[in-house]
Amino acid sequence: MSINHLKNAQQRLRHIAAEWPADPLRPNLQLKTFLSALSDHPALSARAVAATNALQMNRVSCQIPVQTTVMRPASMPQHYVRLKEGYEKSLKGIGRPWWKIFFGVW
After folding, report:
1. Nearest CA among 19, 23, 28, 20 for reference residue 91
2. Which domain of life is it from (predicted)?
3. pLDDT at position 1, please?
4. How far is CA 3 from CA 11, 35, 49, 87, in A?
5. 61 with 54: CB under 8 angstroms?
6. Three-class SS state of 96
7. What is d(CA 86, CA 22) in angstroms, rounded to the nearest whole number?
8. Handedness of CA 4, 8, 13, 14 (dihedral sign)
9. What percent of the chain lies above the pLDDT cut of 70?
10. Is the N end or the C end of the chain the one with fewer CB atoms within 10 Å?
11. Contact indicator for 35, 52 with CB cutoff of 8 Å
12. CB 8 within 8 A of CB 45
């Protein structure tokens, strides 16, 4: 990769890293920090930058839709709904009471 291509790839990856959303649950471990550090790697390729851009734009889920049977497994149909609720409540600082955890009550 020539120097101009490398600088262009580094600039694009820094731009992607700057736009990457912060993880509120793990403030000490951010993907944007890793991506900005990766932009200084001497063997950075255009394919790596394109793959990172595809992850950011969520292109894979647009091309390959997830079936409802995957999102609602027969053994536990409310699993992903509860997972989403738990994530949203944890962002607000709301935890489940110990007795709900102990008895497996949702």
Report:
1. 23
2. Eukaryota
3. 62
4. 12, 20, 16, 43
5. no
6. coil
7. 19
8. positive
9. 99
10. C
11. yes
12. no
Structure tokens at 32: 């944007």
Query: What would the two tokens of residue 40 be?
Result: 């200084």
Other CB atoms within a 10 A radius of the CB of residue 96 amount to 13
| Crossing angle between the packed helical segments 31-38 and 3-19, to the nearest 10 degrees | 170
Gap between the terminal Cα atoms of the chain: 54
pTM above 0.90, yes or no: no
The predicted model gives 30-35 an average pLDDT of 95
Q: Are 28 and 45 in contact (CB under 8 A)?
A: no
Closest CA to 92 of 29, 24, 20, 21: 24
* Segment 36-67, tens digit of pLDDT: 999 999 999 999 999 999 999 998 888 888 88
